[in-house]
Amino acid sequence: MxxxxxxxxxxxxxxxxxxxxxxxxxxxxxxxxxxxxNGTEIGWVxxxxxxxxxxxxxxxxxxxxxxxxxxYILFICISGLxxxxxxxxxxxxxxxxxxxxxxxxxxxxxxxxxxxSLGQRRADELNISFGSIRTWGSIGFAVSSLIVGQILTxxxxxxxxWPYLFFGTVALLVTxxxxxxxxxxxxxxxxxxxxLIQNKPLMLFLFFIMFITMTxxxxxxxxxxxxxxxxxxxxxxxxxxxxxxxxxxxxxxLAGRWFRKYHTLMFVIIAGILYSVRWFxxxxxxxxxxxxxLQFLHGITFGVFYLAALEYVTRLIPKLLQSTGHLMxxxxxxxxxxxxxxxxxxxxxxxxxxxxxxxxxxYSAAAGAIFLITYHALTSKNRVREQ
Length: 387
Fold this sequence. Notes:
Blueprint: H1 2-34, H2 39-67, H3 71-88, H4 94-126, H5 130-155, H6 161-175, H7 194-197, H8 200-229, H9 234-259, H10 264-284, H11 288-294, H12 297-316, H13 322-351, H14 354-386
Helix pairs in contact: 1-4, 1-5, 1-6, 1-8, 1-9, 2-4, 2-13, 3-4, 3-6, 4-13, 5-9, 8-13, 8-14, 9-11, 9-12, 10-12, 10-14, 13-14
């Protein structure tokens, strides 16, 4: 079928980009530790990514909406990813790593959001589940975490740039085959972004989910160090990510079956509660094998939370500003939350260890779930009044 064929490059893009993302998320903290950085310094480097994302994601989203193209913005960002990663991995001093890291993340951070924005739009055009497209990103993440983890155990963490460049090159090549978005409206103007900022339900929702997304980002950054603290290896870190992302892929693949039946905000709240339970359990374990086994909860928490939150945000933003709105969501999820998660997480794991870090994450996720329950009650009352 032509429609399925037109989705193949997009699925391949998500597969290959998330394969590169795995390498950074799963193994960069271990690579920086190899370079001689301590937990707090690693936290600073990991916080540079989200800091760059706060600037880069709205900027590239605005450029995408202004010029009515996702395809060519993706090409520019992936080209930047390849060039800047070579420089980033050559740096040795903390200051040089921070500066090169900012440039590197400026190009890499919008790619996931733009790919998902394109996927959401193509799913709407073809009347299919977005999860059936997005699951290929999770498959790429899972395959890469398993294979690259084993490779790096054998050859050494210092060679992680080579698998990164391989998957990045594949991502660049498939952009030439992408089907771009079709937008019939006038080009977006800078003043139109005020519509998003003045959207109170959107702003409140993005603020409340930060209490949960911050915990997700902190765990992403430090789960590898926590596993090694408990006595695990790089290979075990890769297996842990594989288990987590395999369950995430399953959730994405099946999401279309149950998503339409219930209010998406309820799924966000349920996922927030499960996040809290997950972190408290992680805090209590004392063997790395338990973390690996419990990683199946990643799919149930992140998979459900991300899909439901993205769909809820899509309903709150006008079609004219879809890329900008989606990347604003991404800037909160992976930007501001990432800065807080990396800095607080780095200080906690350095001073008190991984158990204390995960206990704090449990309390934060619980607070976020309570805020979202209150938000749901208030928005439901407003809808009843309007009707």
